[in-house]
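Long-time lurker. I teach an intro course on protein structure, and each term I like to show students one example going from raw sequence to a predicted 3D structure in token notation. This year I'd like something fresh instead of my usual example. Would anyone be willing to generate the tokens for the chain below so I can use it in lecture? Attribution to the forum is fine with me.
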Amino acid sequence: MENNAAIQVGILTVSDSCFNKTADDKSGDNLESLFLAKSYFNSEIAVRCCISDDSENIQTILKDWCDHKGLDLILTVGGTGFTERDVTPEATRAVIEKDAPGISIAMVQGSLKITPYAMLSRSVCGIRKKTLIINLPGSKKGSQECFDLVASVVPHAIDQLKGEKMEIAKLHQNLQNSSCCHKLSKVDVSCVAKRPRHSIYPLVPVQDAQKLIIDECDSMDVIYLKFKDCLGFILAEDIFAIDNLPPFPASIKDGYAVIASDGDGKRKVLGDVTAGKKPDEYKLMSGNCIRISTGAPVPSGADAVVQVEDTELTNQTDDGKTEIEIVIHTKPKIGQDIRLIGSDIKKGELILSKQTKLGPAELGILAAVGPFNINVYKKPIIGILSTGNEIVEPGDDSLKEGVIRDSNKTTLLALFKTEDFPTYDGGIAKDNPEDIKMKLDKMFQNADVIVTTGGVSMGEKDIIKQVLLADFQAKIHFGRVFMKPGKPTTFATVNYNGKKKLIFGLPGNPVSATVTCHLFVFPALRKISGYQNVMPTLIKAKLSTDVQLDPRPEYQRAHLFWQPNSNLPLAVVTGNQISSRLPSMHKANALLTLPPCNETLKMLQQGTEVNALVIDKI
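-- Reply from a regular --
Happy to contribute to a lecture. Here you go:
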């Protein structure tokens, strides 16, 4: 949108079960989290609510959100099925003034590629005043998949609804940001004979390249999320406990709550206290005890717990249902087997520090003592673009002569997924400046970090750097790195609509792309996501065989494993290390960082200790 104002979004969940609190609104929670964490486009969740499957209520809220709140986009979730209570489409149709059937068709066509049940969709999409309304299915998976299919057109649709006119001076810029921008590249590749024979970019050591990258990495925005949606995110604040843990004196064992000064001997059993039960009805007096379960609150008057193994039953009711008397065989001590209030975590105590990665244990701590809404760093969206006239999408059984399937994008998408980073597939760009410019422009619109493969070496079709410089006024921080594999690796930044974009031009050979991704891209992603430690883990390993050294520092793929009674893992190089041989990454869980050869050092012998960068589980 011309004024860059955030699109105002409303999420309306239509569900009897969610409204009556018999089920969680997982679909609504998921959509809200996606808008906050993934940012389909510049948007804000202006309002969200859950109502029952009642047509009049649905119409009332839709009219209010359109006519009075003036929202740009309303997403309804649920009520689109075939049951008697599924009335969302009918209620929507009653309030819209114009149909938008193309959006519904796009969702159905895309969903049919996933499941045949998509043909049962009854979603209605349309416009009321200046508001776009889209019906989404009720399931968490279905609602996300359907909106993913149409999200890219929503900003343009809302631009049209607002009727904003662009000035002639800004029209040219808009054309550059559209599918017509391929006509506007300033790069001339017609004079092949005049291309440089030597790179103008100096060779940069790996450590210097990493520092240049990290210095350009600014933290992502901070977002406020429910703690249960924060797995894998990095904390943007210190977290303090809002409650004690345990919040009451709790028994550590199954046994009997007693008064320690009574010592051992006989006790009358007054009753029992189990976990979750209030012990208010009991006040323990001398000579008595109360049966207690692990985790149950210790009753008033008791100052110790004796485990059941240290007792003996001496009297019970005739039916065997009630204990009357026991004998304690050991003398208890004050505080024995009791967790005191706040003994695990005290209220107000610092429980998680800023820049902590939130894993299962951290979410468990938050669940126990809060808070339940926290500030975390937003995760960057990584756009991935393959380049090359010879590259085709995988999936075609028959290959024409001169073409190869694109393995780089598949590998990188999977790599980023393992680290739980959201991605954007930029497709494949042909080796011409127009197509590269168009694809890059679309990537800048949809991603925070752009990763390209191919087009950064010295061939006549390697024009990524030229397009970045001429068409986007990029700053190239380095264009070559002193390493093997990955020498042509390029790093640049672009100011796009006021936002800094990081661009990594990785080599086209699949091994080079994977290795340089681990060395350069992942540290940058971790830095802007709020991580405290951004570099790969470095450990020592022993070579299993002799290794010849290269004139450049080399990163050889290896499989590390521990042998019995060994202090260091053994490093087995994964076969031929040529940069085009993707099988060398198979089973590789480390990159051996080998020094360059010199006149006195040509080879490292078997058993030599070397540094290894960990890239997978060992």
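Some talking points for your students: The first strand starts at residue 7 and ends at 14. The radius of gyration is 32 Å.
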